[in-house]
């Protein structure tokens, strides 16, 4: 007694082609092409000055404004009021050309009020100071 497992027509050819090996070969070829193609760089010719071996010992001038946790303002480690700070900032802002202005470094304490820090920044902007940076940001990172 013969038993037939599976249904009906086993003599018909399979109509679907197995494309998995074809896809695998194509992906391998694609990866090989990506690896072997050289990276194209866009070069631009620049006329650079010759390098000098002399160390640059010139330190740029800067003024530092510190704001401590009690919201006390210091100009170059000297305690000042907002009015005195405005006078100092106006003196620095009047230096022309603006490229020769000393840098203003603002170092607020972590607990300083944002209102005071914002007021100092606004005063510096109104005074015409163009070079300003924050000191101590690595403490908040």
Write the element-wise H/E pattern from the N-terminal end onward.
HEEEHEHE
Which shape, going by the Cα principal axes? elongated
Distance between the termini: 82 Å
Structural class: alpha/beta
- The name of the CATH architecture of the domain at 62-135 is 2-Layer Sandwich
Secondary structure tally, helices = 3
In terms of DSSP E residues, the strand content is 5-15%
Largest sheet: 5 strands, mixed
What's the mean pLDDT score?
83
Low-confidence stretches: none
Helix content: 25-40%
CATH level 3 topology of the domain at 62-135: Nucleotidyltransferase, domain 5
Précis, in short:
This protein has 141 residues and is α/β, with parallel strands linked by helices. The chain has helices at 20-36, 82-93, 114-127; strands spanning 62-67, 73-75, 78-80, 103-108, 132-134. The chain has a domain at 62-135: 2-Layer Sandwich (Nucleotidyltransferase, domain 5), CATH 3.30.420.
Describe this entry's structure for a reader.
The chain has helices spanning 20-36, 82-93, 114-127; strands at residues 62-67, 73-75, 78-80, 103-108, 132-134. The chain is an alpha/beta fold and 141 residues long. Helix 2 runs parallel beside helix 3. The longest helix is centred in the N-terminal third of the chain and has 17 residues, at 20-36. It is elongated. The mean pLDDT is 83.
Layout of helices and strands:
Elements lengths: L19 H17 L25 E6 L5 E3 L2 E3 L1 H12 L9 E6 L5 H14 L4 E3 L7
Parallel strand pairs: 1-4, 4-5
Antiparallel strand pairs: 1-2, 2-3
Question: What are its keywords?
Answer:
single chain; alpha/beta; Nucleotidyltransferase, domain 5; 141 residues; 5-stranded mixed beta sheet
């Amino acid at each position: 007694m013969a038993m037939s497992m599976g249904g009906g027509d086993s003599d018909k050819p399979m109509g679907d082609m197995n494309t998995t090996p074809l896809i695998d070969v194509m992906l391998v070829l694609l990866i090989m092409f990506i690896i072997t193609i050289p990276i194209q760089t866009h070069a631009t010719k620049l006329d650079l000055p010759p390098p000098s071996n002399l160390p640059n010992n010139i330190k740029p001038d800067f003024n530092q404004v510190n704001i401590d946790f009690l919201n006390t303002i210091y100009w170059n480690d000297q305690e000042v009021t907002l009015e005195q700070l405005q006078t100092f900032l106006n003196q620095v802002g009047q230096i022309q050309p603006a490229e020769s202005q000393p840098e203003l470094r603002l170092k607020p304490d972590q607990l300083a009020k944002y209102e005071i820090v914002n007021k100092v920044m606004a005063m510096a902007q109104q005074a015409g100071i163009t070079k300003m940076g924050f000191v101590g940001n690595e403490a908040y990172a």
